[in-house]
């Protein structure tokens, strides 16, 4: 009886709680709804602010559509063209792309595809025309099957896929349109003719709009992204070395990879392959749009490849900051000066390359300055002057260094505790944890323990930290990778010089080498490249 | 006079030579023409052999097109649908994609876009209907401009671009079609209605074909590429360490990066980002197509990211094989055994992960075996037992090692000469070349010397090799990176376990761990993903 009462009172308490919860939820929801229009407005604004050319493009599409609609809306124009003016409207929707190169590529593909399909359809029509009604239907069906299969198969050829894929789709579409229509429509010549010239009108409007009204060039984008990639890498390499030699306190905040400014610096370069290739493909369709001799889009792609290879070394360098065995900071300090100098010289060289491309002039002959050579030399001397560091076997010294490291880590952990309220001391650093974990794992049922992932200590990390590797090893890796960046810098310089030669950059004049970093806001062009659709 | 005769005789000789040349050219050309059909045939065959599903897809497209043409060709069907049956044909051309997921994504987008555009167009029509002829034209023009601009702007929103871009394009197309037509056609309801159901018929045929006739799943592709990426990395890491410790004679042939099997191994992983994301997007549209609980496409993308990060370390490791300062082979040999064992254990673990994903079962709890731990331990001991190697300053010993290295290099060069007939001895290895190059460059005119690139010695490489860095430095980097791969392996294992948990993999049974590498031919799925077009 008393238990029932307790239950009942608990139920009312629960109900009250539930009500409270509901009220709260509704409040939160209404708050969210109130803020929603503001958020949407903010988001809409952001897309335009990120790259104002998007607004220009949207207006251009609107204007072109209105212009092409006039064909249908204005009486005298409609008289001439007729009902099929609607094909011109469709063409504008699907052909007008963000950049001039992409529009040209699609427009010409569309024109060519339509023309070819029309010719082939006439040939088929010519044969089919001479036969009976039933045979004609069978013949058209067979032709549709064969041409459909063959054209689709052709789209898998790498070369065709890269350059003429859209043309093949339009070919297939127009071919089917004309061949199938020819069964019922007597004057199929008129359909084909109308389709061809309405599409031509549509393409014409698109080309006019994209080439002469605030044109946006793929080539320019390719140029600008190359400059910003070089600048990003330059900042990245300096930031990397700075962080390696900085105080541990400053590091604590950056424990998530995606928030890391260094990661942000090279991420763009790593992911640039497909974007670069698309830009280069579109740039290859663009007419010469400046006084420069010709647009070496292929060389930009090559430079992009070399930059990606350069950035892999930086990724590895960045990995040194987060590796499990760390050289104690007291040891690192010994090499701080020459390393920082090497990094700053490499960074300066990259900045000079960026500014050379930006201003379309040859890069300074002083680009690999004596400073770099000196800095490398000093690094070499510093390493040679500290031979004992590379000794791992001197027990007392090793334990000394380990003690130092332990002290640093304890300090570090304390800081982390202060900041996050999380204790890291429960992570076992001896290999007994290995055995323990294995035993645990053998017994448990994987499905019944969703927390397994969090419970599990990082197994191989234990294996690594439990070994007392020479602490100089990671520093040696760091130094070696830094020297490697210098070697790879050479390839970058070579490709930039080649670019300068092909693109007829200006001569270098003394005084040009002043690197003015005006810190222009970086535009994420990736978001601009809308996927292209658009048969009709 | 005699000089004229000489000239004349030279002219006849030249003419004879020219004729000879022409004949030869024509012969070469005719030979090429004769071989051309064979080559084309070979290429056509290769596309199909690379992935036979391409043939299936081509046949499916042909069949669907024929089926949909029947709507137009068969009398009773045509009676019901009429002239606009052609829209169904168009829908099939543009919606039927290689995989089921992509087809579903496009089909549903197309349906949704058409529906929305139809509704909006009716609303506009409703308003415009009540006004005069001229006002109506202006109103339609304004609506086309506004909706065109707004829809295009919307396409730049990342979320819409990723999921609904095609839908927005179709919306715009249908909206324009109906609104503009409504100016001349009285019964616009019929157009909209017909368009909607012909498109529905087209989409229906496409979905039937892609879901029930030899379906090709994006999810399966994502699964298989993940397995082959893991296998590629496993082979890559072993090949890398093998090459590092192999004899120099075997290396000579692999001087071009693109022919390098190691490069081939990780290249796929590096370039996989956009392909993985597309596959995952399409997989997310696919219905549950197997008895497994649900398709964790997002987890595959995460695993792909971790694998890419893993492969950056391998790129750096690979860089160690080609760096300028090399640890002499006599020194490397001292560490050969433990390094090879670490690499083979890492490789074994990756293979086990690959087979675990391939067979959809949890991976062995023994995946990080004691062997790995032992191998790391031995590597540590080996490094500690050779402290003198990490000493760069002991003059006599350093020069000893340099002499050794010089001898090795001379040997190496001799081999290269034998193979290529190219002498490398002209490359200056002292820093005087630096000065020389600078002087040369200051004087020359860049435009007038196209060969400058080949003349120029590799500048910073000179700077690096002229310094006598401790030769142990690059080995330390190599060892450190190898240890780093073990640390990163942990992240890979974690993500694979998470994948196993989400995708409800089978329990691991003892006996499963036998890694059978059946060496299935690798399919390059990249080539399968045709760009998608296809408004109508």
From TrEMBL, chains A, B:
<feature type="transmembrane region" description="Helical">
    <location>
        <begin position="197"/>
        <end position="217"/>
    </location>
</feature>
<dbReference type="GO" id="GO:0016020">
    <property type="term" value="C:membrane"/>
</dbReference>
<dbReference type="GO" id="GO:0034220">
    <property type="term" value="P:monoatomic ion transmembrane transport"/>
</dbReference>
<feature type="transmembrane region" description="Helical">
    <location>
        <begin position="166"/>
        <end position="185"/>
    </location>
</feature>
<protein>
    <submittedName>
        <fullName>Aluminum-activated malate transporter 12</fullName>
    </submittedName>
</protein>
<keyword id="KW-0407">Ion channel</keyword>
<feature type="transmembrane region" description="Helical">
    <location>
        <begin position="134"/>
        <end position="154"/>
    </location>
</feature>
<dbReference type="GO" id="GO:0015743">
    <property type="term" value="P:malate transport"/>
</dbReference>
<feature type="region of interest" description="Disordered">
    <location>
        <begin position="409"/>
        <end position="429"/>
    </location>
</feature>
<dbReference type="Pfam" id="PF11744">
    <property type="entry name" value="ALMT"/>
</dbReference>
<keyword id="KW-0472">Membrane</keyword>
<keyword id="KW-0812">Transmembrane</keyword>
<keyword id="KW-0406">Ion transport</keyword>
<feature type="transmembrane region" description="Helical">
    <location>
        <begin position="55"/>
        <end position="74"/>
    </location>
</feature>
<dbReference type="InterPro" id="IPR020966">
    <property type="entry name" value="ALMT"/>
</dbReference>
<keyword id="KW-0813">Transport</keyword>
<comment type="similarity">
    <text>Belongs to the aromatic acid exporter (TC 2.A.85) family.</text>
</comment>
<feature type="transmembrane region" description="Helical">
    <location>
        <begin position="86"/>
        <end position="105"/>
    </location>
</feature>
<keyword id="KW-1133">Transmembrane helix</keyword>
């Amino acid at each position: 009886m008393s238990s029932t009462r307790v239950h009942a009172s608990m139920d009312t308490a629960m109900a009250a709680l539930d009500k409270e919860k509901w009220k709260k939820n509704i409040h939160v929801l209404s708050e969210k709804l109130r803020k929603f229009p503001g958020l949407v407005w903010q988001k809409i604004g952001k897309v335009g602010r990120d790259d104002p050319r998007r607004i220009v493009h949207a207006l251009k599409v609107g204007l072109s559509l209105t212009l092409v609609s006039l064909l249908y809306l204005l009486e005298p124009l409609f008289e001439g063209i007729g009902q099929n003016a609607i094909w011109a409207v469709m063409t504008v929707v699907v052909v007008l792309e963000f950049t001039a190169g992409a529009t040209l590529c699609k427009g010409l593909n569309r024109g060519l595809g339509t023309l070819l399909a029309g010719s082939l359809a006439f040939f088929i029509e010519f044969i089919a025309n001479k036969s009976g009604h039933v045979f004609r239907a069978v013949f058209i069906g067979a032709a549709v099957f064969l041409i459909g299969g063959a054209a689709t198969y052709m789209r898998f050829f790498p070369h065709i896929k890269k350059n003429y894929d859209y043309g093949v789709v339009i070919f297939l579409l127009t071919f089917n349109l004309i061949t199938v229509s020819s069964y019922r429509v007597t004057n199929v010549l008129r359909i084909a003719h109308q389709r061809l010239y309405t599409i031509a009108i549509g393409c014409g409007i698109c080309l006019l709009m994209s080439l002469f009204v605030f044109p946006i060039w793929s080539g320019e984008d390719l140029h600008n992204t190359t400059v910003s990639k070089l600048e990003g890498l330059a900042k990245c390499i300096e930031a990397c070395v700075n962080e390696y030699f900085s105080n541990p306190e400053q590091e604590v905040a950056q424990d998530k990879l995606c928030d890391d400014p260094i990661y942000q610096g090279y991420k763009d370069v790593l992911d640039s392959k497909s974007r670069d290739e698309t830009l280069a493909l579109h740039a290859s369709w663009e007419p010469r749009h400046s006084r420069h001799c010709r647009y070496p889009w292929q060389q930009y792609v090559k430079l992009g490849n070399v930059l990606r290879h350069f950035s892999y070394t930086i990724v590895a360098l960045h990995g040194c900051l987060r590796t499990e065995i760390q050289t104690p900071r007291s040891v690192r300090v010994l090499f701080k000066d020459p390393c920082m100098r090497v990094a700053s010289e490499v960074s300066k060289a990259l900045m000079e390359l960026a500014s050379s491309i930006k201003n379309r002039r040859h890069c300074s002959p002083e680009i690999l300055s004596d400073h770099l050579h000196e800095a490398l030399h000093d690094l070499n001397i510093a390493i040679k002057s500290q031979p004992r560091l590379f000794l791992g076997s001197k027990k007392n010294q090793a334990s000394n260094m380990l003690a130092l490291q332990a002290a640093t880590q304890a300090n570090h952990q304390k800081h982390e505790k202060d900041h996050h309220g999380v204790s890291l001391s429960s992570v076992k650093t001896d290999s007994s944890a290995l055995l323990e974990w294995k035993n645990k794992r053998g017994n448990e049922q994987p499905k019944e323990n969703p927390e397994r992932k969090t419970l599990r200590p990082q197994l191989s990390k234990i294996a690594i930290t439990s070994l007392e590797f020479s602490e100089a090893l990671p520093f040696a890796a760091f130094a070696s990778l830094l020297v490697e960046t210098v070697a790879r810098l050479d390839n970058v310089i070579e490709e930039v010089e080649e670019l300068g030669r092909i693109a007829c950059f200006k001569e270098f004049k003394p005084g040009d080498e002043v690197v003015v970093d005006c810190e222009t806001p970086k535009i994420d062009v990736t978001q601009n490249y809308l996927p292209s659709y658009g048969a009709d």
